[in-house]
Amino acid sequence: MRILITNDDGVTSEGILTLAKTLAKKHEVMVVAPESERSAVGHAITIHLPIWAEKLSIFEDIPVYSTTGTPADCVKLGIDVLFPNPDVVISGINQGPNLGTDVIYSGTVSGALEGTLYGIPSIAVSSANYLNPNYKTAAKAIYDLLEQFDLSIIPQYTALNINVPAVPYEELRGWKVTRQSKRRWKDYFEARTDPFGRTYYWMKGDVIEDDKDPDADYKAVNQNYISVTPVSIFITEENFFKELKKALSTLE
Amino acid sequence: MRILITNDDGVTSEGILTLAKTLAKKHEVMVVAPESERSAVGHAITIHLPIWAEKLSIFEDIPVYSTTGTPADCVKLGIDVLFPNPDVVISGINQGPNLGTDVIYSGTVSGALEGTLYGIPSIAVSSANYLNPNYKTAAKAIYDLLEQFDLSIIPQYTALNINVPAVPYEELRGWKVTRQSKRRWKDYFEARTDPFGRTYYWMKGDVIEDDKDPDADYKAVNQNYISVTPVSIFITEENFFKELKKALSTLE
Q: Against a cut of 0.90, is the pTM above it?
């Protein structure tokens, strides 16, 4: 298969390089990714600014492009220019989970969603522990998935958001289809003063895991299952549609 | 009402300042927004970096904070530190539409979605013409909405994504509840060489508006209606859930 790989942690991060090396054992792989983590800028910007792309000499056999764009930009540039007609787009391996409300802000997931706009099966993959990721396990899981899973059944505009427990491969208990949960963060800020007298804030947070759904994404990961959530680019809240229509009908 | 305002175009952009001035005629307003458009960085970053916040002297009566964070960070910092217990969070006025697939990448929308995580009614607002926005019309529309609409009916985890046609206020034809459409971009890249010999790419795109849904967001805007889409932070694709479960059950 022809596999286009991107991420949002940056092109030199261990997660993306481990994934590329693992998949290149069998597949034709190209990496097109942001030059650094800071590149995870909003989508709107690069509509009005150009994108630089530089070929790096990291591997002998795998072409790696470093760009000034976002993960979504990298997927566009990859498919439209550098690596046409890939069979699959994979975004990751992200350092840390993309579970619950993380998903909405995730550059990793948005890279995969971009692939679905082109009608190409697309996967976001994260190693679900920020401080102690296990990229080898996650890369091997994705390798397995490509061996055994028929990507063509994924509908357009839908991506797979995969979170792999950061444990040795042998400790994985299998695959579970899950829902994006209500897992969220209770944030608080610690104010400090920098050497120049300016106030700055460290954000800290406690995770809240109180979702009642037995198929909640984080529950699978906590039990050492690989969590696979089908995610859509469409976010209309249908359950509120009619009531809102009624309420707005009385407005001027 | 106490109104917290953010955006992703930056704290000095005309859209946010017009909105703040319009709403401050009646309400208590605070602006907390990214220092510049470039600040629309991904969410993951500011978990591990601090956020600076500086009070600007733009208005006599409206406090305005410029931060190094994302729109979502600004909402967090606003609610947790600078402006506790707002009655509503408003993100915008964005320069240009947030319609169809724009929504997934929109910093404006993510600012509003962040407000919903706190259980606070939240609105994203865009003036639906990038080159010729009409912020006065959009600001007056939001002012009207706050006068007449009961925000408390909005469910938690749901925000309103509002796109206001960039026409004179008198030409607006009213409000329409819509769905996020399949409106998307067909992109192509133009390669150039910079003075230092490096290749860079301008991305251009043609918009595709072929959605069959009569309630598609862009159709309302094209007909000079204000488009109001209820949007959720949850993006699980339920229609593919069972089939995916079956397919993955055969894996190792």
A: yes
